[in-house]
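Researcher: We're teaching a course module on how sequence relates to structure. For the next exercise, students receive a sequence and then see the predicted structure as tokens, so they can try to spot secondary structure elements on their own. Here is the exercise chain.
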Amino acid sequence: MALKLDESWGNNMVKTTNWLDKSTGDVFSHTEQDMSPILDLNKEHRKEFAVERNSSTGKFKEWCKVASIPNIVVDDLMRKGIWNDRKRFKKWLNQVANKPFRTVDSWL
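Model: And here is the predicted structure for the students to work with:
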């Protein structure tokens, strides 16, 4: 049986709950975040953004916001070694399943 030790919301809106497994003495954490506000805003940004409308050359400008990724997902990407690997991150972000995190249709 597990005993809840504490639960708190961080400044980054990630809820962390710490548990103690009474039978083993192990402590473990569970984190969660409501991603819907970020994903809804990303969807609106994708609708508004078009390279053709936002660039005279039809290409991305030097600096362009391509995604907003919730902190809980960033933590997972860091654990997997994807976050700091530009090639792997680009591949991850362009996967169809990860489109909700993008603010543009694709990042080439």
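Model: If you want an answer key for the exercise: The CA atoms of residues 44 and 103 lie 8 Å apart. The beta strands are 2-9, 15-21, 27-32.
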